Structure formats: C-alpha cells, structure tokens
C-alpha cells in the first residue's frame, strides 16, 4: 500500500473539520451570562425602551424616514429572532445549572454518608468506653467504700470514754 494509510501500527491522523472549533465550556458560560441578563429587570426595561422608540419612530417620524410602516413586520421579525435565540440559551443555562445541582447533591450525599459513618463509629467508641468504665473504680465508688469501712469500724469499736469533767473529778 502507498504511504502509511494501510499500516495498522499507527493511528490515523485526525481529520480536519471545515467547521470552526469552539470551546463548549466557554460557550456554556457565555450562554449563562446572556440567560442571566435576559431574566433581569434591566433587560425588560431596555427592551421596553427599544420597542417604544421603534414604534414612536415609525409612527411619528416623517414618512420618508420611517423604515417599518404600521403592521411593524420588521419589529415582529426582530422580536421573533430574539425569542428564537433566547429560548435555547435559557434552556442551556438551565441544563448546566441542573448538572451543577446534581454534582452538589452527590457531594452532599457523600458528605452525609461520611458523617453518619463517623457518628456510628463515635457511638460505638463511647459505648465501649462506658463498658470499660464499668470495670474501673471511680472516685465516688472508692469514697463510698471508705465511708462504709469507717462506719463498720465505728460500729465495732466501743464508744470512746469521755474524760471526766473537773466537777466530776472534784467530787
């Protein structure tokens, strides 16, 4: 075979596309910016000013300067064109937001699972410490044992003799 076209040990050169290359991430960010602007009061205000100006110009201007007479076909075309681009941009922004929400949800689930596992581990550790403490002599237990021993000693010992008072000695 002629050239490297028939060789199986080398990958084919990628074909060049006649279409321009574009970064989908940059396009997505740009579409989100546009979609965010389309959803603001500023956009509505500017569109209102644009439409009112258009209608005023084509209604009140001298007849030779009017470029879109009464049925305002060109204005309708412009607004339809704007709507035909706005809808897909808004949908693209919503899909990207849904993807971000899905990633955040998965991260939250993973964090919650780790928290639950940590809580269960700490619960088991506390239970084992409590079980271990049951076998350890605590200060209160030792004190109560000493008090019991002192009581037993006091009960088994004869009452202390009292020293005679001076009056009793003098009698």
Describe this structure in words.
With 171 residues, the chain is mainly α. The chain has a domain at 24-119. The protein contains five helices and no strands. The protein is elongated, with a radius of gyration of 46 Å. The relative contact order is 0.05. Keywords: Membrane, Transmembrane, Transmembrane helix. Pfam families: DUF1003.
Strand content: under 5%
- Give average pLDDT, whole number: 87
Can you tell me the overall shape? elongated
String of helices and strands: HHHHH
Largest sheet: none
* Number of helices, where a helix is a run of at least 4 consecutive DSSP H or I residues: 5
How many β-strand runs? 0
Helix content: 55-70%
Calculate the terminal CA-CA distance, rounded to whole Å: 146 Å
Low-confidence stretches: none
Computed CA radius of gyration, to the nearest angstrom: 46 Å
Keywords: Membrane, Transmembrane, Transmembrane helix
Protein name: Integral membrane protein
Pfam families: DUF1003 (PF06210)
Q: Which key phrases capture this entry?
A:
171 residues, mainly alpha, transmembrane helix, DUF1003
Give the SSE layout.
Blueprint: H1 24-38, H2 41-60, H3 73-133, H4 139-156, H5 166-170
Helix pairs in contact: 1-3
Keywords: Membrane, Transmembrane, Transmembrane helix
Protein name: Integral membrane protein
Pfam family, one: DUF1003
